[in-house]
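tokens incoming
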């Protein structure tokens, strides 16, 4: 089965094509500047597996046109990877917000589209773009099943005590204000992998307790018990929780209104400040990229040093909190760009947690030859394992898509 995976932004379209017989990537690509008037044309970067990248620029006024260029690239005699569009048996879509309505991936129909539209107020930047991708694929591939895979679904198992805020209850009942959590597809992928690794060590899946740490430009953590999420760091939006590349993470709500009042900021301006000007960028004044911030910190930049300290301290604090919520832990799992590739951040995030039984194998942690692999970087005698597991959200979407389509056909 050939599955096309789509992740749409407001002006972008990322894709990956899988052959599910061996779960291999046939091609991947990115379309940028979709629907942006004036200036540069939109661009398509298409990379067949094991071959050179193909680049094309053209006017793409909307995602439907962009989708036509993607499908043309996939079937092109020179750089295509399929003979015809008939080979695509399903399309899987990343959808940011499914609220509390979707606890698993679903086949898209009119009711699902209506529900995604209903959650636009909770995901105003992402859900409209996700809908654009769905509609573009429906127009281009009208007879092909479409699957929605929700970023929030993995966290739908949280108990009430974890997802409710201390607000008047009617805001939850009437306005759906609660913790939802995000990065769920990534947390679910590494949860499945960590479960197998712990099972191999004799820990039954139903008894497992571990913490997944997804740290990249966006950062979130989840407490996982018996394979199910019982708490997560992101909230109503992806703004809450850890310090991130440009997001504040946890902050006193009164600090927001104080800044807004003093500097006379509009709602749009304060939202931009919290989501795009804060985090590593705002604290360091250098960059939102941890590599740049660390380099500045090594050069003696005090603000960059503070940014790194805050970043690691918050991870430590959440690990401690989630260890308490879980009643002990079997493992800590690092994933995403920083989690998979930065041994210093991993070490600094757990070096004060020996009291939990974590003993890091420093040589394994720093071994660059192991980068990109699933590894256990804890000492053999450590009571808690420390896994580094490369995430693969697109593969998780493709797997869900294949299962649902096979079930519908069966």
């Amino acid at each position: 089965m050939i599955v096309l995976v789509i992740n749409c932004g407001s002006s972008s379209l990322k894709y990956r094509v899988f052959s599910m017989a061996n779960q291999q990537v046939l091609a991947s690509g990115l379309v940028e500047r979709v629907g942006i008037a004036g200036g540069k044309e939109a661009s398509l970067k298409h990379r067949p597996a094991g071959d050179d990248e193909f680049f094309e620029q053209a006017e793409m006024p909307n995602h439907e046109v962009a989708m036509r260029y993607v499908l043309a690239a996939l079937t092109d005699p020179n750089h295509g990877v399929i003979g015809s569009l008939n080979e695509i048996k399903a399309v899987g879509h990343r959808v940011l917000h499914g609220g509390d309505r979707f606890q698993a991936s679903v086949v898209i129909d009119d009711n699902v589209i209506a529900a995604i539209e209903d959650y636009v107020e909770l995901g105003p930047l992402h859900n409209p773009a996700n809908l654009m991708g769905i509609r573009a694929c429906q127009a281009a591939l009208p007879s092909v099943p479409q699957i929605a895979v929700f970023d929030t679904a993995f966290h739908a198992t949280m108990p009430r005590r974890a997802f409710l805020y201390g607000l008047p209850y009617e805001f939850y009942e009437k306005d759906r204000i609660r913790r939802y959590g995000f990065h769920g597809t990534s947390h679910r992928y590494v949860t499945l992998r960590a479960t197998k690794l712990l099972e191999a060590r004799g820990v039954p899946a139903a008894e497992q307790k571990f913490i997944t740490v997804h740290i990249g430009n966006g950062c979130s953590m989840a407490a996982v018990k018996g394979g199910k999420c019982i708490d997560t760091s992101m909230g109503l939006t992806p703004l809450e929780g850890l310090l991130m590349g440009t997001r504040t993470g946890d902050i006193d709500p009164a600090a927001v209104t104080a800044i807004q009042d003093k500097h006379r900021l509009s709602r749009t301006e304060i939202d931009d400040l919290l989501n795009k000007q804060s985090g590593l960028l705002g604290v360091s004044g250098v960059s939102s990229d941890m590599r740049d911030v660390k380099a500045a910190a090594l050069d003696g930049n005090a603000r960059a040093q503070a940014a790194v300290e805050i970043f690691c301290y918050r991870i430590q604090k959440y690990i401690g909190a989630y260890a308490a919520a879980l009643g002990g832990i079997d493992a800590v799992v690092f994933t995403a760009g920083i989690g998979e590739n930065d041994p210093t951040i991993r070490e600094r995030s757990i070096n004060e947690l020996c009291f939990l039984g974590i003993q890091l194998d420093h040589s394994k942690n720093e071994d660059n030859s192991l980068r990109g692999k699933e590894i256990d970087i804890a000492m053999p005698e450590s009571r808690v394992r420390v896994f580094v597991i490369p995430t693969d959200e697109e593969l998780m979407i493709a797997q869900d898509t294949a299962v649902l389509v096979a079930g519908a056909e069966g």
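note: Residues 302-326 form the longest helix (25 residues).
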